[in-house]
Amino acid sequence: MADVSLNNMFGDHMVLQQGIKNKVWGKADPGEAITVTLGGQSHSTTAASDGAWQVFLEPVHEYGGPHTLIVNGKNTITFNDVLIGEVWICSGQSNMRWEINKSNDSDLEKASARFPQIRLMNVPNVGTQEPQWNFEGKWAVCSPDTVGNFSAVGYFFGRQIHQTLGVPVGLINNAWGGSAAEAWVRRDKIAEHPTLNTIHEEWLKREADSKNGEAAHKKELAEWEAATQAAKNSGSPIPPKPKSPKNTMTENARPGNIHCGVLNPTIGYGIKGVIWYQGESNSARAYQYRELFPLLIKSWRDEWAQGDFPFYWVQLADFKAEKASPSESDWAELREAQTMTMKSVPNTGEAVIINLGESQDIHPKNKQGVAKRLARWALAETYHQQGIAYRSPLYKSMEKQGNKILLTIDHVANSDKAWRPFDVSEPIGFTIAGPDRKFMPARATILTDGRLEVSNDQINDPIAVRYAWADNPVCNMYTANGLPLTPFRTDDFPGITAPKPVK
Fold first, then answer.
1. Are the CB atoms for 214 and 247 separated by under 8 Å?
2. How many domains does one find in the chain?
3. Among 246, 317, 455, 467, which is least packed by CB within 10 angstroms?
4. Do 177 and 227 share a domain, yes or no?
């Protein structure tokens, strides 16, 4: 006779999403009667033949608590200090996983982290091809003692939401450093995709090589053990033990690995939305990201079955050495793929941080600035707070006039006063090219109607303009509200990560 049990998403101090039907699930004996009670509502079900059960709570529209969630089967489980609030998943790779302990002003941030209505959950990194039902983790009340090892971007985002709206916030940090986007997607979704299936095929070869490597290593070990025994018998030196081959099968790049081990146990828990900081590990395949990232968002939404919930991400920051001359850039192409996703996938948003990176460190420490730009999206678009600037300007169109190109930019006021070039008065960061497609530094002028006029005296027949098109661009265009102009190019010349033509 098994006791009724629940997924570890449910526990003391948890936050249930306000205003939706929250799913509660667990395991019990087949046929066991289960009753779940929260406040004045009670829901009953019977465990299926495999012991799985689930119920849906009716929406609770009042924020706050604390409430008690009680689950009755052959045994009784009681969860205390349950709050009704806003729940966000904080996901991606190392820049989302990056702890407060390693971020700017960590001592001050921890000392002031007295927010009992913010609740934190860390999901451990488990890479596997077997879908996991549960994970090792529990909710913690935000305090100076608990916040240090939590996602800095996640915490600062949640704190801004909490302080602005005055409601409880639950944050689920499941990020994995260095992870590739394909590891966050169900493997069959990759395999059946008409173009992304090449990722699946490449991994089939790696998996075969891994099995062959394991077999070869076992043979080496057997030979070493025999040689070791012979050496002991003869008094000779013992030979060095063969090193084990690196096992990439349980790591963070194999398609489906993180989905099965990290995401699957949490799918279905009531959430408001997702914040995402990833892309560095896919930068060498930026063109592929144009399809992979939208697939990730769609598959998550389909599996959660909570509609097109908000999905906001951080565009890649500036990183690596500045270059004196214009050049191609895989990081610029990845940023472009992220921006394209925002234009094609509904209810998404991009926090542009082209000024918050560090050339010598892929993990910039200013996570407060990153989180605020994400929070602006959520507060304005999801929570409809008035008067909050949130959308970085986007390139809209170009018009050629003689040896100049005029650029129209969306989401900036039609006035020269709408722009605020940083540090110096003239715009910096533009390049321009003629029919030879060779880009050269350009002079840019802000016109009275807010458009930008770009030219180079050596180019009489310009055909394309780029802005902030580099790994670590020198650029300075911001709105009056301090939001940076989104890096862009007006051309569609094949980039360095574009698929190579088949010969």
1. no
2. 3
3. 246
4. no
